[in-house]
Specification:
The chain contains eight helices and two strands; from the N terminus they run ααααβααβαα. By secondary structure, it is mainly α. The chain has a single domain, classed as Four Helix Bundle (Hemerythrin (Met), subunit A) (Up-down Bundle), CATH 1.20.120.1760. Helix 2 runs antiparallel to helix 5 and helix 5 packs antiparallel against helix 6. The longest helix is centred in the last third of the chain and has 38 residues.
């Protein structure tokens, strides 16, 4: 019996997808720039860089899904860039602006926020494919970064010195960090169909929203993300009360 000739084995192509990882790199760069700008005392530029990182972070995943270029490498790289842009950058920007004068309490508050971001990202990665996609468990790290960065931006905009509000800044930093690792549920808004038709009045409201945003960007963005942060505890408590009320009604009807 003749031996069969060996068939060439196809080698698996190694490499990474360029387009989505460019946006991820831009996210990390914006976070790095925010740290450098804050170290130089340019706090407004640092805060704007954090919001720029949020935009880039929102694009990389969507680009990967649209171009079918999702990968394990991209997911891990995205988490690392998020740690820089939404963990280290906001904590160090806040530290340089307001917390450095508090000594050990100041850097400890900044560390609590940074560590909470890392824990939040690690928990999110372990729950991918298991958790309900309609909700986030804990405040998303980009939203937390928006509140911390937005408070710095708002302080600079209105001429508030960080040293004058150091304890308020400390409380904001720690509370937002704790909300990120909490069990409060936040709406992910992933069920919204952006490709479907909407009533005309919705387009008018969106237009007015953009007009207000451009009038006072730091104030509007800070209040917007602060409202989102508050919505988690409020909705969670309301949901638990409703569940208990339903349980009592079932128990009363069954007796």
């Amino acid at each position: 019996m003749d031996e069969q000739p060996d068939r060439p084995v196809k080698k698996r192509r190694r490499g990474i997808y360029l387009l989505p990882n460019l946006f991820t790199t831009a996210t990390m760069f914006a976070g790095f720039y925010a740290i450098v700008a804050a170290d130089s005392g340019r706090f407004e530029a640092a805060a704007v860089a954090i919001f720029a990182a949020m935009i880039m972070d929102g694009l990389d995943g969507r680009v990967a899904r649209l171009t079918h270029t999702q990968s394990d490498f991209g997911a891990e790289y995205d988490s690392l860039s998020d740690m820089v842009a939404f963990g280290l950058a906001p904590s160090l920007v806040m530290y340089h602006w307001a917390l450095s004068g508090l000594g050990k309490i100041g850097w400890m508050a900044a560390f609590v926020y940074a560590a909470a971001t890392g824990l939040r990202l690690a928990r999110f990665n372990t729950q991918v494919g298991v958790a309900d996609k309609r909700f986030f468990q804990g405040l998303p790290s980009p939203s937390g970064a928006a509140i911390v960065g937005g408070s710095v931006w708002m302080g600079v905009e209105y001429g508030i010195q960080g040293v004058d509000v150091s304890w308020v800044a400390c409380a904001i930093t720690v509370i937002i960090g704790l909300l990120m690792v909490s069990n409060f549920r936040y709406n992910s808004f992933k069920e919204i169909d952006f490709q479907g038709k909407i009533p005309f009045i919705v387009a008018v409201v969106v237009m007015l929203g953009f007009a207000v945003l451009f009038l006072q960007p730091p104030l509007v963005l800070f209040l917007l993300f602060l409202s989102y942060a508050i919505s988690g505890p409020v909705l969670t408590v309301a949901r638990r009360r409703r569940t208990r009320a339903d349980a009592k009604e079932k128990g009363a009807s069954g007796s």
